[in-house]
Amino acid sequence: MSRPVYLDYAASAPLRPEAVAAEGAYRALPCAAANPNSLHTLGRQAATELERARRSVARSLGGGFRPADVVFTGGGTEADNLAVIGMAEGARERDRGRTRVVLSAIEHDAVLDLVAPLKQRGFAVSLGSPGRDGRVTGDAVAELLDPDVALVSVMAANNETGAVQPVRELGDAAHRAGALFHVDAIQAFGRVPLDLASADAVSVAGHKIGAPVGTAFLALRARAPFWPQAFGGGQERGVRPGTQDVAGAVALAAAVQTVCQHLEATRATVAERARRLEDRLCSVEGVEPSVTLPWEHRLPGIVSVLVDGLESEGLVLALDQAGYEVSAGSACSSGSLEPSHVLTAMGIPRDRAFGSLRISFDERVPEEDLERFSEAFAEVVTRLRSRERR
C-alpha cells in the first residue's frame, strides 16, 4: 500500500481546507500580530475578527447560547476542567449545601480524572452507570440526585463506543434537583444533532472536527454560577484569562460552520458506511460489536468491536504494519494495561474488553478504503490467531 489509511478520526481528525484557508486569510491581515485586547486600531480589528468567530460558533451551537457565552480555550480537556470544577465551586458558593458532583462512569479521562481534585476541594463524587447498551439514562442519574448535588456532567456521546446519550433527558433530571448540567460534546458535536436547551455548559474541541489542535471552546451560560480557575487579565469574561489565539478561533469557527452546514447529509453517508463496515468486521469468527444500539443512537463513523482471544494492542500494531491506523478503545488511554473503563462499566467481561478495537472516520474516508481495511482486518485476525495456537 502506497499510503497509510488513517482511521482514527475520533482521536484527532485531519485539518479541513476551510479551517486552513480561514486561518491563512487571518494571518495575512495586518492585525494578525496585534493583541485583540489593545485599544489601538489593529487591536480593535483583531478583536472584531475574534468576535466574528465567537458569533459564528454560538450560532452553529444552537441551544439558545449567545455569543457572550462562548469562551475560547486551548483544548477540550481544559474546557471540561473549567466546566466541572468551576461550575461545581460556583454552585457551592451560591448554595453551601451543594457539595456533591455526579458524573457518569463512561466519561473521558478529561472528566473522570477530576474525581480526586474535586474530593480535595471538599466535594463528594457519585458515578452513574450505563446499561449494557452503553447509554446512561435519566432514571439512572435521577437515582443519584439529592438537594446536595451541585453539578451533573455527562458526555453527549461516548468516544469509544459511539453510544449517544439522552442529553435533554439528563439535563432535565439535573435541573429538577436544582443542579447544574454540563455536556462534554467533544465527540458528538458536528456529527449528530444536539438538543442543548437543558445544558448550562457545553465543551467542544476543534481537532475532532478538522480545526487545528489546541482550539476549543466552552459555552457557559451567563446565568450559571462559576468560580474561575485562573486569574490575570480578565479576558473571556474572566473564565479563561490570557491573550486569545485569534487565528485559532477563526479556524475553529470555519470548521464548526462547515460540519454543521453539512451535518445531515454527512451523517447519513457516514452512518451507512459504518454499518456496512461493522457487518463485514463482525462476519469474522469471534468478532462482535461493542454496542448493538440502532444507528440513530450511535455516532456515525465510530465502529467499536470486540475480538475474542486477541489483545487490542497486538491488533493495532499488526494493522499499522498493514497500513491502517486504528486505536485500541480510546487513544488517550493507550499504554494502559487495564481494559477500557467504558467497556468495564458496561458490564463487558474483562477478557473480552482486552480485545476492543475502535475504527473511526468521517465523510472524507471513501468506501473503498473501508472495504480494503475489512479485508486486511480479517487477514490480521486469522494470522494472529494462528500464531496464538502455536
Automatic annotation (TrEMBL):
Keywords: Iron, Iron-sulfur, Metal-binding, Pyridoxal phosphate, Transferase. The keyword Transferase applies. Its cofactor is pyridoxal 5'-phosphate. Residues 5-373 form the Aminotransferase class V domain. It comes from the Bacteria. It catalyses: (sulfur carrier)-H + L-cysteine = (sulfur carrier)-SH + L-alanine. This is Cysteine desulfurase family protein. Belongs to the class-V pyridoxal-phosphate-dependent aminotransferase family. NifS/IscS subfamily. The keyword tRNA processing does not apply. Pfam families: Aminotran_5. It comes from Kribbibacterium absianum. InterPro entries: Aminotrans_V_dom, Cysteine_dSase, PyrdxlP-dep_Trfase, PyrdxlP-dep_Trfase_major, PyrdxlP-dep_Trfase_small.
